[in-house]
Every structure is written in structure tokens, then in C-alpha cells.
Amino acid sequence: MSIGIGIEIGSTKTVIASTNERGIIVNDELGNREIPTVVERTFPIRRFGKSVNSDNVNDLKVRKRFFLNNLTSPESQENVLMFLNYLDRVVNRAKVSFKSGALAIPEYFGEEEKLILKSIVEVSDLKITNFITHLTSIAACAALRTGNISPQYMIVDCGYSKTSVGTFSFEDGKVVPLKRWTIRIGSSCFDSAVSDIIIRKYNLPDNEITREKLYKEVKTIKKGLNVLSNVTIKLVDENYNTQTIEVLQDEYLKMIEPYLEELRNFFLKVKEESEFDGYTEVVGNNSYNVHIQQILKGLSYNTTLNSSESAALGACLAVGVNRMGGKYHVHEILGYNIFLKIQGENSKPKLVFDANSIIAPEPTKVKYNRKESFNIEVYQNDKVIGCIEVSKSVTDSPERVNLSVRINPFMTFEVVKVECESECSYVYKSYGISEEDKDALRDLEKRLRDAELEKELKGEMINYIESFMESFVDKLKKSFSQILSSEDFEIAVKIQDEFFDNELKVDTLDEAKACKQNLFKKLEFLSKKVSDSLKGDIENFIKETENKINYKHKTYSVLSLKTVLNDLKAYCKNFELDIESAVKYNSEKYEEYKRQIASLFFKAELEQEAEEAKIQEEAKRKEEAKRKDEEKAKESKEEDEMEKDSLENDKNCNTQEGEPNKS
């Protein structure tokens, strides 16, 4: 199991990385390392990523991009949920199991965006356990994959929707963000400039379809305008009419100059405020833009990281080392200040979390002295983002109210608890999606996913039926030509021809199942004949085996033989083939029973011979013992008789010695 995964959902592409092997990319179902961040809400089958490639106008109408840029929109929330669940299927299809998932998010996300995204993540199937900013992810990749980066370094991310810069330190295995700057100008501004020129110049309808058609061409146009005075393309409109489009370099430069000026000022500001002149890594596809390169010209920088994959790789490495809790750790900063202020009072807001302070897991304690219930406004810089409504018993004098707050793993403000001597409670009201709206998102995703699965399963069923009908006759001939007659095969071929002569029309999965059932019922006569014949063979074999099991001695193999035979009887009792199982029939299981029985018969014969030899040996031993006993008894008898004779002789001698001499 992988410790974790890291995911970067960019404006135009998404990358998933796993902590396995110090960070590897998880490919999509087509084998691509990058997944276009796009949803096509076609029905009943939605399309995602690389599968979105149609120029059909109806498909263009439901094609959705850049949904992370407008999270307050209910439609964007739906699209994000759909895309997250699609990514979950990508991860599951790649058989990547993991404990934790980090989602890399833009630095400009505030409390509102993060809370909405957190709500969507909670509804989704994808296991996301924390957020991490793009810059910190990239910084983690730079430090942890090599381990020998400078103690102080800068990351510049020239992305699609923004340009971000951050300074970091890497000492004692700790990646620590120091400060970061972000401007909402990126490649998208240059793309929009090209699209705006074309739409205005050629009086095209300014709608999603036109911009989607231009989306594919803009990159080519921008690349050409880097070196050419003009670029010409062919554009197919909504009515499939081809139109020649020309974009001049001068008009393009005029359109993008305000963005370039803002970027110049942005980098000057970063240089002045950071006072940094050390190791710098530049990533992001917009860094290949010649105009951006001109702005970066005065900056000594490196491009050793993969522009597309470094954020996802860094996110997965960060979640991995942080979860293990060893030497290495990736810290994060909030990027904006969090203040607390008593509602309705003209008091100075209290700073509780500094923009550039390391986010700590431990809660921060804030103390108030209050007689009664009160509300605390929560500010992100100067914007109200929530309200803590504290309810407490009224007391005669002010009592201490202890408020515990923290920044949670999703980088959002959270109230941990509110305590005081008297009874009290609290409610924190902020952004995010209501439970009712969450349920609506779940219901929508379920309806759409059920429709997709219905369509997919129906298609699989139709493919299976057609494949089966195409091959079943040949397979039956190959396996059962000795069982089925030529007349049987003639009927089967007729049914086969009738099937392919008529188009298979089914609208639902249930209709496909019914079609299969009716079709296979016509073929039951084949499977019954095959099944009866094979079962008869098994029954005959069982009878023959039973007749052969007539052994005098109940040895281990004889008992095992009876056990295997009983198993075979159970197999025979339940043996019944339908047309599908007849076509797929493999006699290996039956043959294995026969092999086992043959082997046990052989062993049983040897065991019987051994038992007989043992009996004969025992009889011989007993006979020899009997013979020895008889000889021993005979010898004992002879010894007894000899002893008796000796005693008799001794007695006679003694008698003679005791008689008087009569002379």
C-alpha cells in the first residue's frame, strides 16, 4: 500500500502522483501522465480528460473547463465533484491503494474557496486528507527528491491562471515556506487576448462554443506569434463552415502589454520585498512564453524540475514524510492573516494567525471576559469570513471564556472548543456547502453514475451476446462432436444465422438480459444433451470405481479413495450445464478426480500387499516363537527328568550305605 498520493488539479491539466518509489506518476486509463482538466457532461456517458476530443457542437455546449476558478457557482461545484470521482476511478483502475491524499491548491485560494472545496471533497469518493499550496508542493519536490538543494531557495510558478513566487528554507530535513507572492495573471490572460482579437476582428459570437473551438488553436497561434509577424489558421464555425483567421503580432502585443507591465511590476515588488538573490527554480508552462522569459531575463534561475509534474510529486512526498513523522517534514503557511473581533464593539481585531507563520497542529488559545452570550467575527485580512456565536449563561460579573482555534489540515480556520465556568456552547457559521446542498450533489452524481453504469453494462452485455453467438457453434463442434449430431449442429447454425440477420435492438440493461435469456433458451436442447451425456459418463465411472473398491484391509489410501469418491458423487449430483457453461466446459476438474482415484488405487494395491506381507510375517514370527517355546519346554522336561533320575540314584546310594553287614 502507498503511504499517500498527491494531486494537482490545474486549470488545464491534472497530474496524480504516488509516494511509491519516492514519487511516481499514476497514468490515466489511456496511459497518459497528464489528464486534461475538463468534463464533458454528455448523457448518459460523461467524458473526462483525454476522452474529450469531439468537435460536435452538442458536445461543445456541455464541455466544462476551469471549474476550480469559480467555486461559488453551483455548476462548477458539480463539475469539481464529477472530476474528483473520475480521478478516484483512475486511481482505483491503476490499483493504487493509499492512506492519505494531498490536493495541491492555488495560493490565492482564501477561506471561502477552500471551505467550498473541502465540502466537495467530503462528498466525493476520492480520499483527500489535506490541502497544500502549489508553491509548497513544488518546493517539497525540489528539496525531497534530490536532498541537496540550497538551504534558502526560491520557487517561481508561471501557471495558467496565476503567477506565484515563494521563498523557502530547507534545513535538517524541514521544508519551510518563508513568504509568498501571487498575481492573478497567467497564460490564460494571453489566451484570452488571442481569442478576443479573433472574436472581435471576425465578428464571431462570443460564447462558450466559439471559445472552445479557439481553445485548441490558441496555443499554436501564440507559439507562432513569438517569431512571426502574423499567423493564419482555418477555423470551422458552428455551421461547419471554414473561415480563414489571421492574427497579427502587433495587435497581439498591444493586447498583452498591460499584462506584461503588471508582471514586470510584480517581479520588481518580489525582488524588493524578498531581497533574495540565491538559488531559484522556475516551473509552469507559461515560463516558455518568450515575453515571460524576457521579464525573467534579469533573474538567474534553473529549470531542472518537470513543469507539469513537480506539484503533484511534491504533494505526494509531503503527505508521505509528514505521515511517517521522521526526520523530514514539509511545513505550510496560510498566506493571509486571521483576526478575531467582538461583533458590535469598536475594538481592534485580534491577530490569531499570521500570514507567514508556520501552521501548527496545536490549537491557539484566545481568552475573553464576558457576562453573557456574544459573537466573534472572523476576518481573513479585512474580509469577514465567519462568525462564532458563543452562548453562555448570564453571570453577575465577567467570567473567563477560553476559545481554542486552529488551522486544520485543509488550511481553513476551525473552532476546536469554547469553555467557561458556567454552561456554554458555540456555533461557527462560515462558508462551505450546506448539508442540503451536499445531499443534492450526492444525488446528482449517483443518478449520472447509475446511468453510466447502466449504459456500460448494457454495452458489455450486447458485446458478450454477439461474441457468444459468433463462436458457440465452432466451440461445441470442437468439444462435443461425439455427443451432438449433425442435425443438432444444423439447428444451431440456423439459430445463429437468424440472430445475425436481425439487428439487436435493446434500450436498457434489463432488455439486454431478457434478450440473452430468450436466445439461450432456444439453445437449451444442445446443453441438455451434452450435460446428460457427460453426467452419464461420470455416473458410470462412479459405479465402476465402487465395484473395484473391495479391499480386505482398510488402509489410509482405501479410506481416502472413498472420500474422493464421495466428493465425485457430490460433483456428479450437482452437474448440470447450461449453454454458456457447455461452451466454456473444461473437463479438468473431472479428470483431476480420475487422476486422484487412479493414484489412490495404485497406492491401495501396494498397501494391501504390504498388509498381507505383514500378516504373513507375523504368522511366521508366531510359528517360530511357538517352535522355540516347544523346544524350550522339551529341554526343560528333559532336564527335569534327568534331575529326577539323579535324585533317585542319590537316594538308592544312601540306602545301600545305611544297611548292616549281615555276615
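[next item in queue]
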Amino acid sequence: MFVYSNSDPDTAYTGIEACIREHCINGNAKSYITIDGLVLKHAYHVAFVTQALGSSEATDYGIIQNCTITNCGDWNFDDYEDDDVQPVGIYLGCFADNWTITNNTIGPIYSDSTKVRGEGVYIGKTYSGGSRNSDNCTVSHNTIYDVYQGITLKYDSKNNIVEHNTIYTCKYGGIVSIGGTSGGNTIRYNTIYDVDDSGTSGIEIYTQNTIYYNIIYDCYNGIFVNPVSGADENSHTAGDDNYIYNNTLVDNEYPIVFNNDDAPTCVDNIVKNNIIAEVTESACVRMLVFYDKDDIPNNTINYNCYYDIGAEDFRVVDNGGANPGHLTFAEWQSIYSQDAQSINTDPLFVDAENADFTLQSSSPCINAGTDVGLTQDYAGNNVSGTPDIGAYEKTSDEFISFIYNKLPTTYIMGSSVQSDKDDEIDDILTDSGTTIPNQISGLNNFDPDNDTVAHVTLVDTTTTNTDMRGTDGANTVIPDAAGTAAALHATTDGLIGALKDITVAEIRNDVCESTNSYKDYMRLFASVMFGKASGGNTTNIKFRDIADTKNRIDETVDAYGNGTSVTLDPD
């Protein structure tokens, strides 16, 4: 601490001892406040704290955003060592409802060098007279590291959303939603890793939580359903009614655990569309653990992907500790009638060693899941049709994105130089007429997961210019000196690279009679199948187009129903 002289600003008195401040900001009993862009550090107890101070007070609708919160509880002075003081970055105590905590960096937060205590974000509080919950809060887009627990929802706190956070190197847990009768919390789109001390968990939950599209790797427990019995303030009554969907769990020692050993039940949980995988040999000890096998039939576990480099190991235990054995995947399916539609194979990640858990185009997880009512994956891609297993949906947009990303900023299309691919992409990739406007070559080798295509060449098939050109990845114009493109154009009337030597004309001649085009056939077929008809009991039958604007087919028949003449598109 420095104190400057009132009379001489250049004179400073140093070496003055200052007391340690318990809180950087005390927001108790304050509502509608915003903390934005501050650096909060070296608080002895809590960087920011808010809670109601009485039953008639409130502390609601606050925002904490864009802040850096660090080194709380790092003083370690003898006079301030107190086992009852737990350092916290952001503490929403009793009745702190409808708060938003977003885009903050929090850590390290710890009480001593062993980091045995210290929370990043803590929501909820208890008194001897009962719990004081904090509800309807959103904790999103924060980075939290070097703490005891990353985000804690406790003491009846419910209907909170924890999403899009990155949490790592926690001493005990990444996201913990336990205590009292808490429920209705949603934990989604988070990345949690390196929570790997013995007994720690990426996500630890109690009851009535919805957990989806999270990525959890290199943790001791991945998802830990933990109904703990006992008489203290943390005692639980059950680990029921949790929904665990579309998470990707990789190289966790115990990916999913139901800790119901001689404790309250774990029932009515639904576990679907999750990838549980080992990509580093011996990283996973078990695939799935139930500590009371009697609860297993009362849960739904299906449409998951399990992959272990060694033998798959499902552990189920008799209540009281007797172990009936470690089961293979097939034994688990047969004995407990779970995971009937699940798969036991390599999910084929793009680059698991570098934590890229997107799916290769040949992944068996694609379209292998089931609809659980979710609409967006971890990356924000829309989920349509049959969902994929895991946190990433393989979308149909990837092909277009691949082509788009391959286009250089300036490229040649026919004899015209295009300088803005954003303006021209629709013209390049969309057939706006009855002919194929452009040839896209190189599609035979298309693999979005393995970039083997050096570049994509676009050729304007409406031009017979013998100097048709493309560009390479360095935007260098490549003349068609040999006239290959021109020769292809002259002989094929529009060659599609992926069809090799089969031309559009050859396909049409093999499928369609006379000179009718594909469009002609589709219109005539649609008029018979879906259009209006007239003259059903006469010698003249007509079929209309779908828009009911014209006759597509006009057929004359004799008294026996034999056709004598047919006119196509007479109008």
C-alpha cells in the first residue's frame, strides 16, 4: 500500500501495512446491478458476493460480465487462516435469483497451496433454519480454472442454466449440482477436462438435472450421479430423474457412475446418445458403473456408443458391496436388457489426440442416435432427421462449407474473373436452370475429414473457350494448355467429375424416352400422382398440374378404356 503526501505528490510513504479485504465487491441486498469489465483479485474470502440479508429483502436481476477474477484466498497469513472461510470468485447466496454471469475469466481461487478449498462460481446457501436457494440464474461462456470446484449449484437451487463454459484443472469437480432437493438445472454445451484427482468428477449431479452436448475428457469421473445418504446439510434423498443426452466422454477413468451403494436410489434416469470412449490405452477403468444393480431395470440406457481399446467393462455391484463381476458389453446387454440399440465400436473422431471430437464422415455414430427433442449440437449445428450419437452432429452443410473454404479469394470462372466468393457462391454451387451451369471436378476424392483434394476447379460449361482455366490453392491461374476442358465440353455436354466418363446425356437417354427431360418426367409423374383429374367416367381423361393451372396429360380412350391417343402438356 502506498500513501502519498497531500502537500507533495512526489512524496510517497511506503511500507504501511494494510488490512486484507474480505470482499472486493459486496452486493448484499442489491438488485439490478451490473459489474462489467473489472479486475477483482486478492480478496481474502469472496471477490463478489450478494445475498438477501432478510426474508423481506431481495438481490435479483444482476449481471456480472467481462471480468477477471483471480487469486482469491491466496494470502496464507497465520492470522487469517480459517477452515470455515472458503474462497469464492462469485458467490450468489440466499435468494439471489435471475442473475447472469457471463464471459468472465475466473482462477486461480484457493485457500492454500494444496487447493483443497475454493470455488469459481457458487450459487445457493444454507442456514441452520433451512436452505436458501437461488434460482433462474444463467452461468455462460466463462473460463474457470485452478479451483476446487468450478461451478456449484447447491441447497435447493433450481432452474439454473450452465452453458458454454470451459472448465479445467479443478481439484474436486467441474460442475456440481447437488444438495437439498435441487433440480430442474440444465447443464449443456460445456467443455470440462483435467479434473483427474481420485474421486473428482467432470459433472456431479443429484436429481432432476438435464445434461446434454457436453464434452468431458481426461477426468476421474465423467458424469457422477451421487445420491449421498446422511444427516448433514448435504444429505440427499435420491439420484433420480436425470436426463443425460449426447455427451462425449473420452479418456475418463469412470465415464458414467451411479453411486447408489447402500444409499438412496438412482432410478428413472435416461442415458441416450452418448459417446463413452477410450482413445488412450488404459485411460478408462470402467465404461459404466452401477453400485446397486437392483436399480438398473428402473433406468433407460440406450443408443450410446462404447469404445474401449481393451475389453469393455461394465461394473455392477450388489447393494452392500458384493461384486457379481465385470461384464462385457454383450453380457451387460443380455443380463440387464439395456443398450439394445447401442453400438460397441470406434466412434472415429477426427483428431482425438488434439481434443477434436467431431466425427469423421465414416463414423458409425452418424444417424445412430434417437430423437430426444434437442435441436442444436455442441457447435450450434441444427439437428435434423435421425440424430447422431455424441456432442457433434455431422451436418449436410459440411460439403458446401468444404467447397466454399476451398475457393480462393480470386478465381477464374470461364473467362470471367470472380473476386468475391461470398457474392458468387450461390451461382457456383446452385443449379438455377435446367442445365448444369458449372463443372466441379475433384469430387471423386472428396473427404472432409482428410484433405486430399488440392483444389476445386470450376469450369463454365456454357463456353467453348479453349483456354478454360482454374486456380490452385495459391490463387495461381492454371491455363488449359492441352485443351482438355474444351475437349470434354465438346464431347459430353456437361461432364460431372464425380460421374467420371458417364455423361449427363447418356444417363438421360438410358432413363428417359425420346427427348423428354428429367424435368418433363417429374412434372408428368407429379400430375398423375398429386394433380387434379377430370373425365374419369368419360372417354376423355385429363390430369392437371399441381398448381391447377394447366392440363399436363390429355388422354382419349374407347368404350373399353383402351387409350387411343395421348397428348402431353397440351396447354
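[queue empty]
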